[in-house]
Write a structure and sequence with these properties.
Distance between the termini of chain C: 24 Å
Helix content of chain A: over 70%
CATH topology of the largest domain in chain A: MetI-like fold
Mean pLDDT of chain A: 85
Number of strands of chain C: 18
Oligomer: heterotrimer
Largest sheet of chain C: 6 strands, mixed
Radius of gyration of chain A: 24 Å
Number of domains of chain C: 2
Protein name (chain B): Spermidine/putrescine ABC transporter substrate-binding protein
Number of helices of chain C: 9
Radius of gyration of chain C: 24 Å
CATH superfamily of the largest domain in chain C: P-loop containing nucleotide triphosphate hydrolases
Strand order of the largest sheet of chain C: 6-7-8-3-9-10
Order of helices and strands of chain C: EEEHEEEHHHEHEHEEHHEHEEEEEEE
Structural class of chain A: mainly alpha
Largest interface: A-B, 69 and 69 residues
Strand content of chain A: under 5%
CATH architecture of the largest domain in chain C: 3-Layer(aba) Sandwich
Shape of chain A: globular
Shape of chain C: elongated
Helix content of chain C: 25-40%
GO molecular function, one term (chain C): ATP binding
Mean pLDDT of chain C: 87
InterPro entries (chain B): SBP (IPR006059)
CATH class of the largest domain in chain C: Alpha Beta
Chains: A mainly alpha (290), B alpha/beta (399), C alpha+beta (349)
Keywords (chain B): Signal
Strand order of the largest sheet of chain A: 1-2
Number of helices of chain A: 13
Number of domains of chain A: 2
Distance between the termini of chain A: 45 Å
Low-confidence stretches of chain A: 1-10
CATH superfamily of the largest domain in chain A: MetI-like
InterPro entries (chain C): AAA+_ATPase, ABC_SmlMolc_Importer, ABC_transporter-like_ATP-bd, ABC_transporter-like_CS, Mo/tungstate-bd_C_term_dom, P-loop_NTPase, Transp-assoc_OB_typ2
Structural class of chain C: alpha+beta
Chain lengths: 290, 399, 349
């Protein structure tokens, strides 16, 4: 290709801004449609297929059998409620821990230590998820450090639902801290000073000024913590004892049983929950200020 | 602004849905469950030169290169002799093995009876040209041409060895030593919350085996052939057991750690896990309970579209060679497949202990088999629960 | 401190020996200041001169490194902002974006647990005072800069503080609005009888509104006095140069022109073209027409370049032809202000 051809193209791009825009957007739009929505479409469609119980082959015939099973069996309702409960608990814990931490980082720490604190918050994200989860398995083990904290072997929470919530909250905390930190960073110091100036103590300022202004940030963080918790199946396998979440059921049906259609049908549950959650977040107006 | 935020919402929704859905696309060729026709796959005609590597799916402890224990190594010699580098992937359950083999990335697999037929009928594995396996002739006849490794007289694999699922317990806590599976099915067990069970639908057979002996009036003849009443009884027993379970295990390292820490003190296990836990300093022992046990008879199979067939054949020949087969049998705690292995074991009584040629013993061991709608015990007057039903029941058991 | 005017009224703000350092940087370097009750007091200086830090020390947003702050005779040096009877109007207004205008104004009253009814009435009254009746339901984001500025003012005034601190409150407004707000602020201050401490870097603003002005330079106050005193009798070349513009003469030039040794300042508008023989001769170097006035730059034969400002009360002369012409400049003796000589005397503009 010679320079002349390049030049011609440059000129034509320049003269047709609409083409230019189309060229720019083609790749991302294709990505969105094919990879995101396409995968979702395949998921939705395959949820209506069934699987040959013996060979594991997929039978591509429309059937509501999967959904009938999910709606009919009590265990799926129980597991769904448990998963939503875990996701909600993780989100609340993350928010409660992240707000003061992010506040310290954004408004109290000096500019130099702020730099290091952001790195410190991000560092755990570099470590493997599995390593962290297994580290917690050791921490929570019989007679482990957590047990000693509670006064001896078997006194701590052990493996189970509590352990799952704790470890998930630990794993997703950075995803809550970062948006809140960004939100606080954007919050002018003068607003806090103005509140103090008008007679408000720190607690009052936090309740009436900081928290209301952080709602969009917390909502953004909660979308991460909630959806990541809802989809998790590894942590619960490692520290959850006998606990099952939706993710385990999906995994068991894809990975172990090879029943992709049923897994797809199960996967529509978190999808549905997230849609409802996002609509609720949007209704609250939090997304408008993102 | 409004339009902007709507766009933001759309992108967010799309992103989160992908996060939450975590599903992938998978295609599988199917054949009707009624017809049970075996897809035609050609066996390897002649052995060529090795391809330089071989990708294996195996049970934990089957492919050891000295990294677990310096003295436990039958991979290094194979690699140096054949020039085939071994890439091993440990699978935790038979279901996982089937799924892994369906990816087409692996050459050979150590399939148990509840996976082998599914692989054969799924067209995922090829018949084995036993003439190319020099050590095949020394394998116990009792293991050859069995329903789980051959179809219509065509061998689909090389027998590896067999054994039983054992009952493992902490010697410092569980006193006296248990002798019956009843210990793990006792709803009032003193070890409530510290009992463990294998996390796979196939574990339903363990409950069925216990019921076979404890409730003979249910008429269970084969723990893998359960009609509605028998199945419901087994599921009910397991739901009752769930209250006493601390955790279900599939990952053997998790099991070792749980017994070492004391989170689990009693439950089903494999001999290799007992060995590993002991090596790790955990005070554990294992017994074969009076009811007998479920167990396995494993078969090395070669993928229908193996990328490294020659190295695959070389591996299958190596792993049933007297020396390697003896080593793996002792390490894993099972009966070897090769007759000559009994002379190669460190413990000279190994073959006796594990009843290598004692077919009457293995009559008491129920090898993992895929449950089918047509009862595998031969009954024709009832329909049995198939594996899909077992899978969904397993979810309900865990709650 | 040479020309400080003593007030007989009680002092609402008293600063003594106030110092504030940020690491190695000294922002406020020993300030002593007394501000009287009901006074409109301006702190004028270039950016970085410490005036805003002093304001923040009074408000309590910063704690001094040394020295004390007293309000109404009470030492508040160590008290938190919410314990001080002062309110602040911030440079960026600092309106709470999630609250309506009404809620913003009510905020201070609500914190002090004023009854709802009284709160509403007082907020409405305060909004009326800044001519924003009927805007209570709006969000700050739906208002213009000038309106926001007035909301910030109402939010502070509604608390009836002893002292109102204003940190460059008009800085973000355009010129026309700024001049209008200057008049309004002054009226509101006189009306409410509250002490205003007003920080600005705009000398016009300081001169037009204040009862007294403190001129800041490098963390110190270099002069305090009425606008007239600061303008007419600057104590240093820095003040002369920063407050208005000035011609500064020194050395041989000063000796030739004034028959005295030392450094002297003469404001441009105090110099006139004249025909008197005794006047200083020079050549017009530049003529700048600026609407109401014309500025001439003249090179004196005595060796200094001076600026002369002349009102365009008559039709201007044929300006272009003036460049290069020989002229004579004269002034009244009383407008020649002696300045302390030193490094400051280098300043001229």
């Amino acid at each position: 290709m010679d320079a002349g051809v390049d030049g011609d193209q440059g000129v034509s791009m320049h003269r047709h801004p609409r083409w230019q825009l189309a060229g720019l957007l083609a790749a991302p739009v294709l990505w969105l449609v094919v990879a995101y929505l396409g995968a979702l479409g395949v998921l939705m469609v395959s949820a209506f297929w069934t699987v040959n119980g013996f060979t594991g082959g997929i039978v591509r015939e429309f059937s509501l059998a999967n959904f009938r099973t999910i709606l009919g069996e009590e265990v799926y309702r129980t597991v769904t409620l448990r998963s939503v409960g875990v996701a909600a608990a993780v989100t609340v814990i993350c928010a409660v821990v992240a707000v003061p931490m992010a506040f310290y980082m954004a408004k109290v720490a000096s500019a130099r230590s702020r730099h290091w604190l952001v790195i410190a918050v991000l560092t755990p994200l570099w470590a493997s998820y599995l390593v962290k989860a297994y580290a917690w398995r050791v921490l929570l083990g019989n007679g482990g450090p957590i047990d000693s904290l509670f006064g001896g072997p078997g006194r701590g929470p052990g493996y189970g639902l509590t352990a799952t919530v704790i470890v998930l909250a630990y794993l997703w905390l950075p995803y809550m801290i970062l948006p809140i930190y960004a939100g606080l960073d954007r919050l002018p110091d003068s607003l806090l000073e103005a509140s103090a100036d008008l007679g408000a103590r720190a607690g009052h300022t936090l309740r009436r000024i900081v928290l209301p202004l952080l709602v969009p940030s917390v909502a953004a963080g909660s979308i991460f913590t909630f959806s990541l918790s809802l989809g998790d199946y590894i942590t619960v396998q490692i520290v959850g004892g006998k606990t099952q979440l939706i993710g385990n059921l999906v995994y068991a049906n894809i990975g172990a049983a090879g029943n992709l259609p049923f897994a797809a049908a199960l996967a529509t549950i978190p999808v549905l929950i997230m849609v409802i959650y996002l609509i609720a977040v949007r209704r609250s107006g939090a997304l408008e200020e993102l | 602004m409004r339009a902007d935020s709507r766009w933001t919402t759309a992108v967010l929704v799309a992103g989160v849905l992908t996060l939450a859905a975590c599903g992938g696309g998978d295609e599988g060729g199917g054949s009707g469950p009624g017809g049970l026709s075996v897809p035609k796959v050609e066996k390897l005609a002649a052995l060529g030169a090795g391809e330089g590597e071989v990708n294996i799916v195996s049970w934990a402890g089957y492919v050891e290169d000295g990294s677990t224990d310096k003295t436990v190594d039958w991979v290094s010699s194979f690699e140096s002799e054949t020039g085939c580098k071994v890439n091993n992937k440990v699978a935790a359950t038979s279901d996982e093995m089937v799924t892994l083999m369906k990816t087409g990335e692996y050459d050979v697999v150590s399939a148990s009876g509840d996976a082998s037929l599914r692989l054969i009928y799924g067209g995922d594995v090829a018949p084995v040209n036993t003439g190319l396996i020099a050590n095949y002739k020394d394998i116990f006849d009792g293991l050859k041409d069995k329903p789980w490794n051959a179809v219509n007289g065509v061998a689909y694999g090389v027998p590896h060895g067999r054994g039983a699922n054992v009952l493992m317990y902490r010697t410092d806590i569980v006193k006296p030593a248990p002798t019956s599976w009843g210990a793990v099915f006792d709803p009032n067990s003193p070890f409530k919350g510290k009992i463990t069970a294998y996390d796979s639908p196939i574990y339903i057979a363990d409950a069925a085996l216990y019921l076979m002996k404890s409730k003979p009036d249910l008429g269970i003849k084969n723990p893998y052939a359960l009609d509605d009443t028998q199945f419901d009884a087994a599921v009910a027993l397991l739901k009752e057991q769930n209250k006493a379970i601390g955790e279900y295990w599939a990952d053997y390292t998790k099991e070792v750690q749980a017994f070492k820490a004391g989170n689990s003190v009693l439950g089903t296990s494999w001999q290799v896990i007992v060995n590993l836990a002991k090596a790790d300093g955990a005070p554990v022992e294992a017994v074969l309970p009076s009811e007998g046990a479920t167990g396995w008879s494993d078969t090395w199979m070669i993928a229908a579209k193996a990328a490294h067939p020659n190295c695959g054949y070389l591996w299958m020949n190596h792993i049933v060679s007297p020396k390697a087969n003896a080593a793996v049998a002792e390490w894993f705690g099972e009966a070897p497949a090769n007759k000559l292995s009994c002379a190669q074991t460190v413990d000279k009584n190994h073959c006796t202990t594990f009843h290598a040629d004692d077919e009457s013993y293995f009559d008491q061991v129920w090898y993992w088999t895929t449950p089918l709608a047509q009862c595998v015990d031969g009954r024709t007057d009832v329909t049995c629960k198939d594996y899909a039903a077992w899978t969904q029941a397993w979810t309900a058991i865990k709650g | 401190m040479i020309t400080e005017i003593r007030y007989n009224r009680p002092m609402t703000v008293e600063l003594s020996g106030l110092r504030k350092t940020f690491g190695a940087v000294t922002a406020v370097d020993g300030i002593d200041l007394r501000i009287g009750d009901g006074e409109f007091f301006s702190m004028l200086g270039p950016s970085g001169s410490g005036k805003t830090t002093v304001l923040r020390l009074i408000a309590g947003f910063e704690l001094p490194t040394a020295g004390t702050v007293a309000l109404d005779g009470r030492d508040v040096t160590r008290l938190a902002p919410f314990e001080r009877d002062v309110n602040t109007v911030f440079q960026d207004y600092a309106l709470f974006p999630h609250l309506s205008v009404q809620e913003n104004v009510e905020y201070g009253l609500k914190v002090r647990k004023v009854a709802k009814r009284e709160r509403r009435d007082r907020a409405r009254e305060a909004l009326a005072k800044v001519r924003l009746e009927g805007f209570g339901a709006r969000k700050p984001s739906a208002m213009s800069g000038g309106q926001r500025q007035r909301v910030a003012l109402a939010r502070a005034l509604v608390n009836r503080p002893k002292v109102l601190l204003l940190d460059e409150p008009l800085g973000a407004l355009d010129r026309k609005l700024r001049e209008q707000m200057q008049v309004e602020l002054k009226a509101i201050q006189r009306d409410a009888g509250i002490t205003f401490v007003f920080v600005t870097h705009d000398q016009d603003e300081a001169l037009t509104m204040s009862d007294r002005v403190a001129v800041f330079d490098a963390g110190r106050i270099v002069q305090v006095g009425t606008p007239e005193a600061v303008y007419e009798r600057p104590v240093s070349a820095f003040v002369a140069g920063f407050v208005g513009s000035s011609n500064v003469f020194t050395g041989e030039t000063a000796k030739t022109l004034f028959k005295k040794t030392g450094t002297f300042s003469v404001r441009p508008e105090k110099i006139a073209f004249t025909d008197e023989a005794a006047a200083a001769p020079g050549t017009v170097a530049e003529v700048i027409y600026a609407g109401p006035v014309t500025r001439y730059v003249v090179d004196l034969d005595a060796g200094a370049r001076v600026v002369v400002v002349e009102q365009n009360s008559r039709t201007p002369r044929a300006l272009a032809g003036l460049r290069g012409q020989r002229v004579r400049l004269g002034w009244h003796e009383e407008h020649v202000i002696p300045l302390p000589s030193g490094k400051d005397s280098a300043h001229a503009s």
